[in-house]
């Protein structure tokens, strides 16, 4: 009998209504975790829960804006009250934000992007870490990006700054809570087939250009990013903390 990598674990996944977050929630549930999923779109979360349950898994949905403190706390409360505690959290909620020359970015757009990408990660960790400490440890994962870390791109300064900020937050938390057996890492996807990717590259010519940026000459499927997240969530990565782990198809090193 095949053992499940996350059997007996409870996980929170934010931004779970689509794309990478949805794939992570599906895989974690298939690997035995009870998952609490969050996003703004209730109908998509309900569909996700039904799909997980139909496959024999267990999931609970909580719709809300994780850049606000009350929903961030409510997710942890739900994990503890419904499933007895929290072992894993994937803070994946994010937006592209303004795609324009930096002088054209409004303060409001900057603040909104930071709130969704970076503040939500902070608020998640604020409540997730104490719950993990109560369990004797855990795995905290931030979904960041190679953008702003290994590569700079024009017109996305707000996104790059928010995602780079997540890596700084991750490193500080990894040192702060490593002695208490909470591992903290960031997953840095490359180009991945999601609705956001289609927004960024919205013509056949642009899609071909993005594929060619990667050493593998293709972009990832969300399930490939989910498998990388599973590694960070599971005991397979028991000695991995403070890592900005690239799952980027070689986009960070490709020059061809």
Rounded to the nearest angstrom, the radius of gyration is 17 Å
CATH level 1 name: Alpha Beta
How many strands?
7
- Helix segment tally: 8
Strand arrangement, largest sheet? 3-2-1-4-5-6-7
CATH superfamily: NAD(P)-binding Rossmann-like Domain
CATH topology: Rossmann fold
Number of domains: 1
Strand content bin? 15-25%
Mean pLDDT: 95
CATH architecture: 3-Layer(aba) Sandwich
Unreliable spans are none
**Sheet bearing the most strands, described?**
7 strands, parallel
Helix content: 40-55%
Along the chain, the helix and strand elements come as: EHEHEHEHEHEHHHE
Distance between the termini: 45 Å
Shape: globular
Q: Could you name the key traits of this structure?
A:
256 residues, alpha/beta, Rossmann fold, seven-stranded parallel β-sheet, 8 helices, 15% strand, globular
């Amino acid at each position: 009998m095949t053992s499940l990598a996350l059997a007996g674990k409870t996980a929170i996944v934010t931004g779970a209504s689509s794309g990478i977050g949805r794939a992570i929630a599906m895989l974690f549930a298939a690997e035995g975790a009870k998952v609490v999923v969050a996003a703004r779109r209730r109908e998509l979360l309900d569909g996700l829960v039904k799909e997980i349950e139909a496959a024999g898994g267990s999931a609970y949905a909580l719709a809300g804006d994780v850049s606000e403190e009350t929903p961030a706390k409510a997710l942890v409360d739900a994990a503890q009250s419904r499933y007895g505690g929290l072992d894993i959290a994937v803070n994946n909620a994010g937006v592209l934000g303004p795609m324009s020359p930096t002088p054209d970015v409004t303060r409001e757009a900057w603040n909104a992007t930071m709130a969704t990408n970076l503040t939500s990660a902070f608020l998640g960790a604020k409540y997730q870490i104490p719950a993990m400490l109560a369990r004797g440890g855990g795995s905290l994962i931030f979904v960041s990006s190679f953008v702003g870390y290994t590569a700079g791109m024009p017109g996305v300064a707000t996104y790059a700054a928010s995602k780079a900020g997540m890596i700084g937050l991750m490193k500080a938390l990894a040192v702060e809570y490593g002695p208490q057996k909470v591992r903290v890492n960031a997953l840095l996807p490359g180009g991945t087939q999601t609705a956001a990717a289609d927004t960024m590259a919205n013509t056949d010519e642009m899609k071909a250009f993005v594929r060619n940026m990667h050493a593998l000459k293709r972009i990832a499927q969300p399930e490939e990013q989910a498998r990388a997240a599973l590694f960070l969530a599971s005991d397979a990565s028991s000695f991995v903390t403070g890592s900005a782990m690239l799952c980027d198809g070689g986009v960070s090193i490709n020059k061809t």
